Amino acid sequence: MHQRRGKRKEPEDYGWVISFGCKTTGTLRRLKVDTDPSSDTSPIEVPCPCGETHRVTVSPYRRRRAADEPFDLEVKSLDELR
Ligand SMILES: [Zn+2]
Q1: pLDDT digits over 2-28, tens only?
Q2: How far apart are CA 50 and CA 25, in angstroms?
Q3: Dihedral, 20, 33, 7, 47 alpha carbons, nearest 10
Q4: Ligand 1 center to residue 80 CA distance, Å?
Q5: Residue 77 CA to ligand 1 centre (angstroms)
Q6: CA 9 to ligand 1 center in whole angstroms
Q7: How far is the CA of 13 from the centre of ligand 1 (A)?
Q8: C-alpha distances out from residue 40 to 35, 44, 62, 79, Å
Q9: Which of 9, 17, 21, 43 is most buried, by the most CB atoms less than 10 A from its CB?
């Protein structure tokens, strides 16, 4: 999974951000998803940069991503993590 920085298809759409806590390192991580994740809010399995996979609940944490907001990992759709 590689990040594609600086590549924009639509100027006003920067995707969505789902924040999740990494219990292993005690940090807050950000997952970027290109498509609106609201259609399916079932839990996802996120391959965290710490090396472990975390089970993350989607609905309470999703929000629009700001243009210059950093993120730790990126997917096109949350279906990739289910
Ligand atoms: Zn982690």
Answers
A1: 556 665 555 678 999 999 999 999 999
A2: 7
A3: 60
A4: 18
A5: 20
A6: 30
A7: 27
A8: 11, 10, 12, 9
A9: 17
